[in-house]
């Protein structure tokens, strides 16, 4: 039996995607596995996410070359070492009201001769994958987002590398913050989930961590900074999640409108908070928004390993006809969970369990 499988990445890029694709291809084409399973796989990379599927004209050679990439072990051999996505990605919503392109995607899937589609995505891209599975596509999802906000999995690709970048960047900032005895407000990503701030703050030892799940008081932040100064601390690092907000205020957005899924682009709380603190103290305050630096860089060992596990799981799921589902990690085991369940709600920080609402940092005590 021969099965042609498409693979694409959609939404924000992150570390670990290339590793997943590398191992997916290796597992699909492994000679022993091929003879044991009795299935020959052909793997077709779709370029630039849903856009590639929408745009490709399967009967035209030039178009196939522009929007797809046949994958074999020679091509993907070293991909696991690289961040981002070699297949490219876009943040497109094929089900966008009034611009619905989902039927076109179904049609392209069929005319490309695909019998399964592996989608590496976060909440929005996997939401699209789920809707397409309801239209008859054999979809397998792989969780990838630095936000780690998907339910039914303890891990999403890219998170560990992003936490590592945050940690390294804060290490650098400590040097200049200490030299000048300044306060540094560092803004990280994460959308509505505070995981990046919480775990990035834990790893880097940020003095104050502000997360979207708990609205903060600016006066309390200033009070904590004053206490640290009195205790003899030369400088302080505040790590604030892009979705965090002062009590009584809305989140701060960029001015560039909304994406195809209707989300505003978060960003700006770091600068706002720095200014507010500056108004209330004589300490010198600076801010840095880490922005997309967090998504770049070399994948950590953990993201490479998780990519490997998820890539192999994707092929196993296709062999088992485990469609409409997502590979996940639960208590150290690789699992397959219904996409519907994974998308029911976002996985957010449980404030009571993990966050110290008095001192604005992670709750470290064993309860
Ligand atoms: O979802 C991942 C993420 O990096 C968020 O943390 C962030 O808000 C968003 O993507 C940024 O999106 P874009 O790359 O489209 O600017």
Descriptive overview:
The chain is of the alpha/beta class and about 375 residues long. The chain has 14 helices and 15 strands. Helix 10 links the parallel strand 7 and strand 8. The site of 6-O-phosphono-beta-D-fructofuranose has 13 residues, from strand 10.
Number of strands: 15
The structure class reads alpha/beta
Q: Give the proportion of residues in helices.
A: 25-40%
Q: Count of helical segments?
A: 14
Order of strands, main sheet, comes to 3-2-1-4-5-12-13
End-to-end separation:
55 Å
The proportion of residues in beta strands is: 15-25%
What topology does this entry show?
Blueprint: E1 2-9, H1 17-29, H2 31-37, E2 40-46, H3 50-55, H4 61-67, E3 68-71, H5 73-76, H6 102-111, E4 116-121, H7 123-134, E5 139-143, H8 159-180, E6 183-188, H9 195-204, E7 208-210, H10 218-230, E8 236-241, E9 253-258, E10 264-266, H11 269-280, E11 285-289, H12 301-319, E12 325-330, E13 333-338, H13 339-342, H14 351-354, E14 355-356, E15 361-362
Parallel strand pairs: 1-2, 1-4, 4-5, 5-12, 6-8, 6-11, 7-8
Antiparallel strand pairs: 2-3, 9-10, 12-13, 14-15
This protein binds 6-O-phosphono-beta-D-fructofuranose (F6P).
What is the gist of this entry?
With 367 residues, the chain is α/β, with parallel strands linked by helices.
Give keywords.
alpha/beta, seven-stranded mixed sheet, 20% strand, elongated, binds 6-O-phosphono-beta-D-fructofuranose
């Amino acid at each position: 039996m021969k099965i042609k499988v498409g693979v694409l990445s959609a939404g924000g890029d992150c570390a670990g995607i290339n590793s997943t694709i590398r191992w997916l291809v290796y597992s699909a084409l492994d000679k022993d596995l091929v003879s044991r399973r009795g299935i020959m796989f052909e793997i077709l990379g779709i370029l630039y996410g849903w856009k590639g599927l929408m745009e490709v004209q399967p009967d035209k050679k030039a178009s196939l070359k522009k929007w797809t990439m046949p994958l074999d072990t020679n091509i993907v051999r070293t991909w696991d070492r690289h961040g981002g996505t070699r297949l490219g990605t876009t943040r497109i919503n094929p089900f966008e009201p009034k611009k619905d392109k989902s039927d076109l995607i179904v049609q392209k899937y069929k005319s490309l001769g695909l019998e399964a589609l592996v989608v590496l995505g976060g909440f929005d891209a996997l939401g699209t994958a789920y809707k397409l599975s309801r239209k008859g596509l054999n979809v397998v999802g792989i969780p990838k987002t630095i936000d780690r906000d998907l339910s039914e999995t303890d891990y999403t690709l890219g998170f560990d590398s992003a936490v590592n970048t945050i940690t390294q960047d804060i290490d650098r900032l400590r040097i200049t913050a200490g030299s000048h005895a300044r306060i540094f407000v560092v803004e990280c990503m994460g959308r509505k989930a505070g995981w990046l701030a919480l775990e990035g703050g834990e790893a880097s030892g940020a003095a104050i961590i502000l997360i979207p799940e708990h609205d903060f008081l600016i006066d309390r932040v200033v009070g904590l900074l004053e206490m640290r100064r009195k205790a003899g601390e030369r400088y302080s690092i505040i790590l604030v999640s892009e979705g965090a907000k002062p009590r009584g205020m809305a989140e701060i957005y960029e001015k560039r409108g909304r994406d195809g899924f209707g989300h505003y682009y978060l960003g700006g709380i770091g600068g706002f908070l720095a200014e507010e603190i500056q108004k209330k103290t004589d300490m010198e305050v600076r801010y840095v928004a880490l922005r997309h630096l967090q998504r770049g860089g070399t994948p950590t060992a953990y993201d490479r390993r998780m990519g490997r596990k998820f890539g192999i799981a994707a092929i196993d799921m296709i062999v088992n006809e485990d469609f409409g589902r997502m590979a996940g990690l639960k208590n150290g085991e690789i699992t397959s969970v219904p996409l519907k369940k994974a998308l029911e709600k976002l996985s957010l920080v449980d404030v009571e369990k993990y966050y110290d609402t008095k001192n604005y940092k992670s709750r470290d005590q064993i309860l």
